[in-house]
Request: fold
Amino acid sequence: MTNLHAAATPRDTIVDLDDGLIMRWSTHADAENVGDLVAETFTWMSFSGLQDGVIPGPNLMFRAAAKRLLSGKNAVMTDRDYALVEDTKREVGKNPIVACVSIHRVRAYYGCVDLFFGKPELIATDPDYRNKGLIRKLLFEMIHPESDARGDSLQFIPGIPHFYRQFGYEYALVSFTSGKIENIQSIPALAEGKTTEPFLLRKATPEDIPYLISMSTKERVSPYTQLGLYYSPEYWQYTVKDIFEIADPEHPGTRSTQIVVDAATGKDVGFTIVSYPFGLKLEALVLDENVIIQEALYPILRQIVAMEKTRLEEKKAKVTEEEANKINTSSFYMILQLHPQHPAAVLLGSKMVPTFTGPGFRLCTRINDYPKFIRTVTPELEKRLARSSMAGTTGRLRLDFYRKVEGNKAKGLEIIFEKGKILEAREWTNPGYEKTAEEYLAWKAENNIPVVYGATFAPLTFNNLLTGERSLEELIWSYGETAVKNEASKLLLNSLFPKISQHMDNFYW
Reply:
């Protein structure tokens, strides 16, 4: 365990929920039962297709994932970071763990600021125990307090559409996709007369971890994004080394890291990350600045396709004939989970088709403490302001969220500026017209009337502006409650919170 995942709240607390139900944190010994619960819960989530009239068995891929989370070697959590509900009175032979939520922690960036994001994940409830509020209790009494206490700036989660809104989450992060190579036959073959590729792929080993760390800076991986997740030392230690020591042979890890080698010199010149449980995806492609991508791209893609064919052939050999017939090893697609500005995406151009009608896969986001978030990212906000037409601003920005809701603890926010610097960010409540008039008269009497900028936002929708997932103009069009006090307020908000791109590769557990 690293300091990254050190617990901030006690792990020996047991909460009595009555009728034999208790709420507690996990231990390594819970791995089998949690794995079984997750497998049963995700029975109907099949990546190979469901057959009409056929009830599938437990989801063994998700069972293996849950056990990896509780291995004690995971990159995102320890074996004490699953919050559980246990039925101490359940009959012998039935799984005593009836609900669970894990809390992950990952390194992230917001412009020039490094911070941490929390991620509730692999949530499950036994069907016999649903609609009893167990997930709500796990989130609000264990997961959120732990994540907040250790200093996570926000929590995010993919998963059931709309479901997490009831727990104070708003869609405010996006995993962008540049497109899909629908027909892999469109990838040009090796030129006639050539027998070897100019760039070769080899599987990354633990000895490559220092190289991978040095090559996976934000500037190399995704210079087009201003908010996202790092490929951190913990990520490389887990995905390149530890996962192979704890993997279920039938359901191993979900991704592969390959080192790109210049065949002529034998020198390592980059890396690729490929994942496959949700369809073959190129998650990252990073090359040395001296490599010409026009020369390297197709050799790399051809080898990724060849490896996928081999993987599928091996998979066919392990399943029933009926299941094997569903696996097509000669024709499949490849998704580029790369930013649209990535040189690979630009070069492929018309060979790709859109994967979504929208920007990509949306993630639910909880930012419970806006003042704390503003204080954390102040260096980036001041940097943005200094480059804008509102440089040197002095005054107060007051944002009214109408009411206090789960997912944010304040009705409003006030940010105080002096000569372009943020002096303070604090909770604020709109006092109403009468009190506002009294405040103005008091300022006037002291001959010290500040400039007050202002705007209103529907509850939780300020999340979208903070993360840059939407622009102020888009929010104004989307929500009738969203409005700005004047043109200067609009300029200030646009300067502080422009629409930005994000890098959210997070399915590697």
In short: The chain has a mean pLDDT of 92. The radius of gyration is 25 Å. The longest helix spans residues 293-316. The longest strand covers residues 97-110.
